């Protein structure tokens, strides 16, 4: 079985629809759909990405967007805005065999990497002379089983007491709250612009990671959410104190799953936590809708995630080497680097 590699074209019907069809059998998550992956590639990817098909073009066994900018260490495309890398495969496809064939198509490559793979869709391969796997992040999700009342009663005492305390104080201070959900394509420009304005006032702006209208990620979120909204699959949850926007979450849906892509809030309203208040009302609404069964956070597991769920799994990377010698050489370099950095790390602690 061979790979066919051609220039990536986000507007190519075959590339888009073959990706959509295989994604339906390889995980069927919103963040694996072409509306997400292709939009990210066309707005944030390096020039020269390649579309790679493993097997017969009419029935591919694996698909990937390849970043060949480093000919020695090519990789499946991934951007910081993507929860998962641009690699999908049929459930019965052997990853090692597909990678072995692919690395043969790149004559200078010593290593091929696939970053941010989800064990929910791709079983983590065993380590071998030519295969390394590396932990990436532990990520959380929520199963929406039963009623919201039972779910909320199972949350920790501190979370429930904190939310109740905040709501009582809001009443005492005569601050009206409301949640709204934007879903129409024509609302997405305003939704992302308002999100960016809110995030730019917080700590992410100081770190340079906030969404802003001058950054390419603004165009990604706008275009991607509009494409999902055309299919009724975009949701932007917004929370207001009076007429002031104080929290916002950008979300996409597919099937019975919703993915929270981005969250921000107004830090100036401390000691209130508007993101917590928004999430309580959002989850209650999702339970009552009875359409969504799973909420994915797809970010590094934080302490606050554990207040909402006790479920988590490890997302991982895979490095596949041309041969055992290349694998041994990379491991030796990695070990040498670790030994070199260890005294410095110890003194910094």
Automatic annotation (TrEMBL):
Report domain BioF2-like acetyltransferase positions: 158-304
In the UniProt record, the signal sequence range is: none
Q: What is this protein called?
A: BioF2-like acetyltransferase domain-containing protein
Q: Please give the organism.
A: Quisquiliibacterium transsilvanicum
